[in-house]
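Journal club side-thread
Mid-discussion, someone asked how the predicted structure for our own chain would compare to the paper's figures. Pasting it here so we can look after the session.
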Amino acid sequence: MKNDHDQKKEIVTIKERTLKLNLSDADVERICLKAGSAGLTVPELLQNFIGDLVDGTYSNGSDERECANEWFNRCWFGMFPDKTFLWYLIDYDCLEDVLESWRDKEGAQEELKRAEIQPDEFEPDEIEGYKEDLKYWQDSIEETFADYKEYAKNEEIGTVEEEMKKVRVF
């Protein structure tokens, strides 16, 4: 359960979002009827379900959260998730760290490219600092990726660059 401070920070970020769903005409009619039977619009119904599923900014209670998670865990995607690098990063709570290291690594690479083109704009120790930082971030990412490869040894895995491209699409 969120404390009041965390919830207030989340409430400030509430705004209309656009998510695209692929539904049959019959399913659209069914979800409209389901929502209408409770006096809700379809967006209101989905907001409530999502809130329970992710223990969101607003939730209908602990039983509702438990039921939403039971539904998720019983579906094929919850029971048998593909052991992708993205799944691993989320499951081991290191997605943000790896994404930040990747962005920092790319930034350092850009600066080093710029230093090659315009070397007079950089001090030698500044260039060396970028190289050290680049190595640190690359090693950090590679270490996490090696742990993932060990964990998912029976899975078909691409290179770290290929897997990060998939992660970044997310």
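Post-session note: The chain has two domains: 4-79, 85-169.
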